[in-house]
Amino acid sequence: MENPFKQINMPLKEVPPELKAKVMHDIAMAKLVMEIAELFSYNLSHVIEQTIKNRKS
User: Fold this and answer.
1) What pLDDT, on a 0 to 100 scale, did the predictor assign at position 44?
2) What dihedral do alpha carbons 45, 50, 53, 54 form, nearest 10°?
3) How confident is the model at residue 38, as a pLDDT?
4) Which superkingdom is the protein from (predicted)?
5) pLDDT at position 57, please?
6) Angstrom distance (rounded) from CA 55 to CA 37
7) Which of 3, 11, 15, 57 has the highest CB neighbour number within 10 Å of its CB?
8) What is the pLDDT of residue 18?
9) What pLDDT does 55 receive?
10) How far apart are CA 36 and CA 27, in angstroms?
11) How far apart are CA 22 and CA 29, in angstroms?
12) Within a domain: residue 27?
């Protein structure tokens, strides 16, 4: 069995452009979903806060 740590010093190989594009697209979609989730979670807490304040009045 070969030692995988011996390959660490080897030069890096170029990634195929279509694979790189797919990974970048997936990262962008994940970031978009996280930003949308953050937006809705913030607004939801604001709505709950306002509802509680209005009920006390």
Assistant:
1) 76
2) -140
3) 83
4) Bacteria
5) 60
6) 27
7) 15
8) 97
9) 84
10) 14
11) 11
12) yes
Count of residues for the chain?
A: 57
Domain that holds residue 36: 15-56
User: In Å, how far are 7, 8, 29 from 16, measured between CA atoms?
Assistant: 20, 20, 20
- The confidence score (pLDDT) of residue 12 equals 84
Q: How far apart are CA 24 and CA 32, in angstroms?
A: 12
DSSP string, 4-56: GGGGTTSPPPPPPHHHHHHHHHHHHHHHHHHHHHHHHHHHHHHHHHHHHHHHH
Tracing tokens 């080897």 back to the chain, one arrives at: 10
For the chain, list residues with pLDDT below 50. Answer: none
Q: How many folded domains does the chain comprise? A: 1
